Amino acid sequence: MDFKKYTDAIDREAEVILTASDKVWDAAETAFGEYKSMEALCEALKTEGFEVETGVGDVETAFTGRFGHGKPVVGFLGEYDGLSGLSQVSGCPVNNPVSPGGVGHGCGHNLLGAGSLGAAIAVKEYLEDTGKEGTVIFYGCPGEEGGSGKAFMAREHVFDECDFCLTWHPGTTNSVLNTSSNANFQVLYKFDGLAAHAAGAPHLGRGALDAVTLMNVGVQFLREHVIPEVRMHYAVTDTGGYSPNVVQPHAEVLYLLRAPEISIVRDVYARVNDIAQGAALMTGTKLTIDFVKGCSNFIINHVLSDQMQKSLEKYEQPKMTEEEKAFLTELDKSVTPAQRADSLKGAAKLLSGEEREMVESHVGELYHDIIVPLAYNPNPMAGSTDVSDVSWVCPTAQIGTATWMAATPGHSWQVVAQGKESLAKRSTLYAAKVMADTALEVMNDPEMLEAAKAEHKKNCPDGYDCPIPAGVKPRAIGKL
């Protein structure tokens, strides 16, 4: 069907959408502290006639913007948290922080929230114009970076009413995410011992830092005895002080455990807990295990992915202007030859024949203004996303658009430098149109929606089991 009449609303309301993006970029707040960013998006939603509710799911910076009534219910997922240490002047092709050590949108979440807002506006206009039954909900989802905000929201049943959910992510290609992701747990291990003079009476001390060291050594030996896809990252967050002549009475280490399936993460977590307990026994210290957050692996919905691909191909993707090309050419000098050569190679491997040749012909280019053909990747992406937890609740699909220069490293100042520039903004509006078109196609095709639900039921027969235990509250990493 042709829904251009409604997706055109995204262009008409571009000022509202992109002003919200710029405000979020300017605020640049980290997980669960996104108060100004939340305000900017809520203000935009109210301007567009949505009913706004804040603090949903018992998460202070989570919110919804709702319009319509009845079924079907489509949810658009928006994010707006930044990353510490990535402050950067917009439009500057060299590393130049606005505030050294400050926060920046190094994953493009200012654009992510704005693009989902644009899609919600288009669907609202459709419902308003046609008078048809249906509901559109914009979900303001905080703390994706290291916080798994959507998992906390899903635990509190925030997404249960949705028939399906859609989202996107800024990136370097125009493509559908048709692969799973790694599930993860983030856990803080705290050891408490007994302080003593390290020279005069070391026998009276019980070293908490010794326990952290032994735990880390034990985990290194565990690596041989888990599947190769498991990742175990750690950071010693409290060494107990900087005086070597003191037996440190307290120390902490933060672990991030990843695996392709949540069931594997649970098993690895139990084994790491045993190692931590053993380290406490060896050192005579007391162990406290503080579960911080977790997220599941992404459940692909091929029915929705197929429709997102069709919608992706329906709209014209942005092309570089000469001014944009000049900026990206300068910015490209900041990346390594390996980063530049690696662009698109992963996508090309999944294809064959003419499709593969087409994609490979663009490897190494400055900007990817092509649409990558849809292909299923059996290997999960290395990273994790809390969109996965929504995908266990209802059929969910996601696209990426070429918002950045092709060789842009993830979580970098280069991402921040592009976050307020014209190419990124036009790519955001493109993503909004694709999501809106997908939503309207599904809402107007009951058979497609039922097929998506049937596939979801087959993949998640036992429903959603949140990896975050009851009672665990959202916390920013910096406040653990």
Helical content, roughly? Answer: 40-55%
Terminal-residue CA separation: 50 Å
Computed Rg = 23 Å
What is the H level of CATH, i.e. the homologous superfamily of the largest domain? Zn peptidases
CATH class division of the largest domain: Alpha Beta
Kindly report the CATH topology of the largest domain: Aminopeptidase
Strand order of the largest sheet: 1-2-4-3-5-13-6
Shape: globular
Estimated structural class: alpha+beta
Give the topology string: H per helix, E per strand: HHHEEEHEHHEEEEHEEEHEHHHHHHEHHH
Task: Give the beta-strand count.
Answer: 13
Major β-sheet profile: 7 strands, mixed
Second-tier CATH architecture of the largest domain: 3-Layer(aba) Sandwich
Total of domains: 2
**Mean of residue pLDDT values:** 96
**Which stretches are low in confidence, meaning pLDDT under 50 for 5 or more residues running?**
none
Report what the structure shows:
This protein has 480 residues and is of the alpha+beta class. The protein has two domains: 4-181 and 297-459, Aminopeptidase; 183-295, Alpha-Beta Plaits, CATH 3.30.70.360. It has 17 helices and 13 strands. The chain has helices spanning 4-12, 14-27, 35-47, 109-130, 144-147, 149-155, 208-222, 262-283, 302-314, 322-332, 337-342, 345-349, 353-360, 387-393, 413-418, 422-443, 446-459, and strands spanning 51-54, 63-69, 73-78, 134-140, 164-171, 175-176, 183-192, 196-197, 231-238, 246-247, 250-259, 286-295, 396-402. A seven-stranded mixed beta sheet has the order 1-2-4-3-5-13-6, with helices on both faces. Helix 1 packs antiparallel against helix 16, helix 2 (14-27) packs antiparallel against helix 3 (35-47) and helix 9 (302-314) packs across helix 16. The radius of gyration is 23 Å and the shape is globular. It starts with a helix and ends in a 21-residue tail after the last helix. The relative contact order is 0.18. The model has no long low-confidence stretch (mean pLDDT 96).
